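Need a sequence for this fold. Nothing fancy.
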């Protein structure tokens, strides 16, 4: 069969924007790529009524002719803790893929030790790339990853660089990953003792937030993810912030419908920001979704990743709202509500490292700037739903914010 090559159809004349001297021609063409970001929320993806999995692997019109001839190769990579706690999930997923004649599992599921250590170990990336190469996956293959934010990041990184991008289907398995990282378009591993130094932007093929995976989380990990929900609510939605304040106790008690509602709202705020905020790949000056993160990333590294990302974000938010009161006129009642909400959720607003490593923490500002380049831009808060970008940080005001939190740490 001979097919017409679509790029040969009606070639569009190139536009010459400017001509210099005889030999210099300057071209400046803009183009856009239509991305789709598909995220499903469910209580059990294997419920017989649920057709999410089918839709996840559905190729739409994009490569239809391909799949008529070949089955698509699939690999599954899973966080050890999830495999231990949910063997039935892995079994059901493997069986579901095996039953689909258009899909071909190339090997048994592979396991990755979860937690931040997997982002610090380059051998894990090499192992992933080796397996992708050995099984000859290609851009029409699928990598399915089930896990916390750390495992999603490391597998996502390998999937994004192999062949410049293999389709990635994510099953986030922590509250933080479902509320934030799993629905994002970034992946990363740590390098040079710095968080997320190596990474890419890559839109996942599909994301499934299956709440049943969250049952097995230890309570500290369960509550940890809601710091990102507080963060995004402060940036985007007074109504979502009120919901979190009003329901902090229920969320901490793991009431399923309250917690899943909070996760879904957070995920949707993150998604809207990415898909409709005008800067999905952070090309511009600010990284608004990283409110509270200049300190969070640094304290995680200073604690040798003993402080989890979610807890570190809680600390970062507590400092930054107090800073915002002093510098940007955020109402102090609002800052108190934020700190109270974090505490009622079971999140930390104090850690001795805030005191012991003050100078090193402030060095985090420079790392934050270097990540993006250009002048320092940090998002702070003038009011709930009213973020403000600032370009200088008053170190003494940060000190005072830390002092204020230190004072409170004694009455908890
Ligand atoms: N790419 C992004 O946009 C982005 C955004 C935010 C955070 N992150 C990253 O996400 C990571 C934090 O993710 P996290 O909070 O999910 O923690 P995590 O991935 O470190 O997981 C925490 C622990 O929970 C275990 N676990 C995972 N799912 C479980 C389950 N269902 N039951 C029992 N145990 C389970 C893991 O094995 C691990 O030990 C950080 O590395 C952070 O930098 C990335
Ligand atoms: Zn974060």
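Here you go.
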């Amino acid at each position: 069969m001979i097919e017409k090559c679509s790029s040969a159809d009606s070639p569009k004349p190139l536009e010459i924007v400017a001509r210099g001297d005889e030999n210099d021609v300057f071209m400046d063409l803009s183009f856009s790529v239509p991305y789709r970001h598909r995220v499903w929320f469910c209580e059990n993806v294997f419920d017989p009524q649920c057709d999410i999995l089918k839709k996840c692997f559905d190729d739409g019109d994009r490569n239809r002719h391909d799949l008529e001839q070949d089955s698509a190769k699939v690999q599954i990579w899973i966080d050890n803790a999830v495999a231990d706690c949910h063997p039935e999930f892995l079994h059901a997923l493997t069986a579901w893929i095996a039953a689909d004649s258009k899909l071909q599992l190339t090997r048994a599921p592979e396991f990755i030790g979860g937690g931040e250590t997997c982002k610090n170990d380059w051998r894990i990336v090499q192992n992933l790339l080796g397996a992708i190469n050995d099984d000859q996956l290609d851009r029409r293959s699928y990598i399915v990853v089930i896990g916390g934010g750390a495992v999603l990041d490391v597998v996502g990184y390998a999937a994004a660089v192999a062949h410049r991008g293999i389709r990635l289907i994510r099953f986030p398995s922590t509250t933080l990953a479902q509320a934030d990282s799993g629905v994002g378009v970034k992946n990363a591993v740590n390098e040079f003792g710095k968080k997320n130094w190596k990474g890419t932007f890559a839109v996942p093929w599909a994301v499934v937030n299956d709440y049943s995976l969250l049952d097995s989380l230890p309570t500290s990990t369960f509550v940890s993810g809601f710091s990102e929900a507080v963060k995004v609510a402060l940036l985007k939605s007074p109504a979502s912030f009120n919901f979190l304040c009003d329901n902090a106790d229920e969320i901490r008690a793991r009431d399923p419908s309250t917690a899943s509602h909070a996760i879904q709202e957070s995920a949707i705020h993150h998604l809207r920001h990415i898909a409709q905020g005008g800067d999905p790949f952070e090309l511009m000056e600010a990284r608004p979704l990283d409110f509270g993160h200049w300190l969070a990333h640094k304290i995680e590294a200073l604690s040798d990743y003993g402080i989890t990302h979610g807890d570190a974000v809680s600390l970062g938010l507590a400092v930054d709202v107090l800073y915002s009161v002093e510098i940007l006129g955020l109402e102090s009642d609002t800052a108190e509500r934020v700190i109270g909400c974090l505490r009622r959720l079971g999140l930390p607003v104090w850690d001795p490292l805030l005191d012991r490593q003050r100078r090193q923490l402030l060095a985090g500002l420079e790392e934050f700037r270097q990540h993006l380049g250009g002048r320092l831009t940090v998002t702070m808060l003038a009011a709930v739903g009213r973020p403000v970008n600032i370009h200088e940080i008053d170190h003494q005001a940060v000190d005072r914010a830390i002092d204020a939190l230190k004072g409170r740490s004694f009455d908890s």
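For context: The chain has two domains: 39-216, 219-409.
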